[in-house]
Structure formats: C-alpha cells, structure tokens
Write a structure and sequence with these properties.
Length: 150
C-alpha cells in the first residue's frame, strides 16, 4: 500500500529510484481512500490562474487515472472511530516531542494517516511511507507493517 508521500516524492523526482518503479507498477498497488483525497486536494487548492497549475494538475490527473478503483481501500464504518482513537493515542505519544499536534489540520492529517494504517492492517498489506507517524502506529498496532524510506 502506498502512502501519499510516495506519490508526491516520486512526481517531484525526490527519494529513492524505487518510488518511481512503484508508480510505474501502480495498477498493482493498493491505495487508501484518504490517500486518494490527499492526492485530489491540489485540484481544489492550486490557483487556476498560476502558470504552472495546468501542468501540475495534468500530472496528478494522469496519476489518479492509473489507480484502479478495485485497489482503493475505503474505511469501514467502525474504522472512523478506531482511527480517531488511534490518532489520539499517537498524538499523546508525540506530545512534548519535537513535533506537536496543535491545529485542526494536524489532527485531520493524523486521522487520515490512522485510516490508512488501519486499511493496510485490515488488508494485510505493507505500507510504503516516509512518514514517521506510522512508526508510532506500528507501536500502537503491532500487526501493522511499514517500510520507511528517506
């Protein structure tokens, strides 16, 4: 299962070459519903009048079109409450560290990550990510498997 940062880094040419290989084989990869939402966000956020917007949106559009609907794992009803609790436990673990959860955006981002973690866990999939929040989720949900890259 691929996390949002895999797509962003591969599109930007950052990270290891294996990320681009993952995108080349995208029809085989699982993606969570929250990742789809995060990848669609630029369509609403970017300024349509900016000179680079059309090119960026075309790249994201091509990418999204290559994700098979059958490979998108959607949260089940119970996942929402479980993700909120998991994100809250992770936030408590983060408190006092180098990072904190202060804004609504921080909370929503952590809940999206928790939903992605639960989807991977339910599917028995290994999550590919560079997001350290998933290290906390692994500690809280021992069955979760993740591969981290820099």
């Amino acid at each position: 299962m691929l996390d949002t940062n895999v797509f962003i880094h591969a599109l930007a040419g950052r990270g290891p070459a294996e990320l681009r290989t993952l995108l080349a084989n995208l029809p085989l990869a699982l993606v969570s519903g929250p990742v789809m939402a995060e990848l669609s966000w630029p369509r609403g956020r970017l300024d349509p009048g900016h000179a680079d917007t059309a090119a960026v949106l075309a790249r994201y559009g091509d990418l999204l079109a290559r994700i098979s609907p059958s490979k998108i794992l959607l949260p089940e009803a119970a996942d929402w409450s479980r993700a909120g609790e998991l994100a809250g436990r992770a936030a408590r673990g983060i408190a006092g560290g180098a990072r904190s959860i202060r804004t609504a955006f921080d909370r929503v981002e952590l809940i999206h990550d928790a939903l992605t973690a639960l989807a991977a866990l339910r599917a028995g999939a290994t999550l590919v990510t560079s997001d350290g929040d998933f290290d906390l989720f692994q500690q809280l949900e021992p069955g979760l498997e993740a591969v981290f890259y820099e």
